[in-house]
Amino acid sequence: MAQADASSPKSNYNATKDELLKYYKDMLLIRRFEEKAGQLYGMGHIGGFCHLYIGQEAVVVGMEALKKEGDQVITGYRDHGHMLACGMDPKGVMAELTGREGGYSKGKGGSMHMFSTEKKFYGGHGIVGAQIPLGTGLAFANRYNGNDSVSLTYFGDGAANQGQVFEAMNMAQLWKLPVIFIIENNQYAMGTSIKRSHAETHLYRRGASFGIPGTEVDGMDVLAVREAGREAMEHARTGKGPYVLEMKTYRYRGHSMSDPAKYRTRDEVDDIRTNSDPIKKCENYILSGKHASEDDLKEIDKEIKQVVKEAADFSLESPEPDPKELFTDILA
Amino acid sequence: MFDDKPETTRMNMIQAIRDAQDVMLGKDENVVVFGEDVGYFGGVFRCTEGLQAKYGKQRVFDAPISESGIVGAAIGMGAYGLRPCVEVQFADYVFPAYDQISQEAARLRYRSNGQFTAPLVIRMPTGGGIFGGQTHSQSPETLFTHVSGLKTVIPSNPYDAKGMLIASIEDDDPVIFLEPKRLYNGPFDGHHDKPVVPWSKHPKGEVPTGHYTVPLGKADIVREGKDVTILAYGTMVFVAETAANETGIDAEIIDLRSLLPLDIETIVESVKKTGRCVIVHEATITSGFGGELSALVQEECFYHLEAPIERVAGWDTPYPHAQEWHYFPGPARVGEALKSVMEAV
Question: Of the candidates B17, B40, B162, B197, which lies 20 to 30 Å from A207 by C-alpha distance?
Answer without folding.
Answer: B40
